[in-house]
Amino acid sequence: MLNVARPDIADQALRATVVAAAICAVVLLTAVPLSSNDFWLQVTIGGMIWNSGEIPDTVLFAFTEARDYPFHAHEWLASIVFYLLHEALGYDQLIWVKGALGIALFALCCRLAHRLTSSLPVSLFLAIVTMAVANYRHFMRPEIFAYLFLLILLNLLAEYQLTRRRQFLAWIVPLALVWANSHGSFPIALVIVACIGAGEGITAAFAAKGAPGRASLRAAILAARPYFICCAATFLATLVNPYGYQLYLFAWDFAQWAVTREYIIEWGGTFSPGFARARGFWAYLGLLALCLTVVIACHRKLRAADVLLLFAFGYLSTDRQRHVVLFAFVSLYVLARVIGPVAIGPRATRGALALLLVLLLAGGGMLLRYGNLQGEHPYSVSSRKFTPLLIEYVENRDLRGNVFNSFELGAELVHKFYPRLRPAIDSRIDAYGERYFEYYSQLYSDERLLLDFIAHYDVRYMLLLWWEFERIKQMPQLPLTGWRMLFADHKMVLLGRGDRVAPQSR
User: Fold this and answer.
1) Predicted TM-score of the model (pTM)
2) Could you give the dihedral angle defined by the CA atoms of residues 16, 17, 20 and 25, in that order, rounded to the nearest 10 degrees?
3) Domain that holds residue 414
4) Is residue 354 domain-shared with residue 326, that is, in the same domain?
5) Are residues 341 and 471 in the same domain?
6) Which of 19, 56, 70, 339 lies at 20 to 30 Å from 252 by C-alpha?
7) How far apart are CA 169 and CA 196, in angstroms?
8) Half-sphere exposure (CA, 13 Å, Cβ side) for 212?
9) Is the same domain home to 355 and 392?
10) What pLDDT was estimated at residue 2?
11) CA-CA distance, 138 to 135, in Å (whole number)?
């Protein structure tokens, strides 16, 4: 009896060890200190909504006319969550929330893959690959909730396909409602459900191709109908937000802006030189190779829905960097479905788990040595966060006035010092608009324009990153109008001026 029990105990120990190693790898990937500058604005706006019960409808914080520009707080629900977490735990402890969200994403990936493949090694491998590709966008920003919603959506769709229980489709409707009030990526839900519905209809029509035309059409309609009913209900649910149908127009309009592709890294081209040097790009290429391999090896299992999803999200992933993550999660669903239930013996399973364990241990060692896909470690991260010395300097001298600031520093400036110090811009490029952002960018290279801006708005301070300061200090007239360095650290420079102000140009 003892000899019979030992293999089971050994197998269970191996499985537990591999799962533990995978979780440790995910923790190393995701449990790193916060680095996103947008977080500060989310916390500030979330606090305003929570305490007043009202969603701000203008930019509000800027000292220029931009303060009256309309603001679509499409992430208002996520902002409240961030505010409550920050109030309850404090900034430094949010590293554990970030890690917990990483584990939650990993668990959803594993569950989805395991439901479709019934194989622990395959599901763990696919989930780890997906988490690695998605890691370069793992920030405490509202989009992280969008990734959770996306994986929940894919799990619900997989459950419906496996069981044909329509309550799984019904759960997509309230999910979409929450998604539409948390992040602007909510139309993705409609795209995915529509792609699968159309694909199922096409597959059913081809399966009935020997039947009369009406029978083939009827088979297609019956197969697609539950998905399109779900799609219609989901669309209506997404309209339950503070802006109604206009939120769709806002999301579409913002996605077309040329300025976002040019100036905002995450909206840049996937094959741009900057991203091509990043670790996330090489992880993306690895995923593309894996997709190609699986599709070729299992092409007989490929369905029309799989093709539509790979084409739609593959195209998006080649267009903008941030869409690579969406492709990673959608391709997990497609790859697991195409692979299907894996029937291998106990010995082959043990061999696969042992190989996966070796890969996980090697990967964990590389994560400890070189950091995650952003080059970050649990104990070290590069960020634009204000240093304690800068905060102390501003507080001790009770600085007040208008600040010409870096786009990346506006959010924390608002959170820490508004209304004593008012920014010229913060990280909400969608609210400030293309024209304002382009005009503001010109101030760094046109001294006359900058001097006019300073005089017109009575700018008292400049808070700039070092590379921006290097551009500003080339301007000969600034020192003559009283500007001097007040404070500097390894991240940024604070400038102030005396009483002399250059006259406005005529």
Assistant:
1) 0.93
2) -150
3) 388-497
4) yes
5) no
6) 56
7) 12
8) 2
9) no
10) 43
11) 5
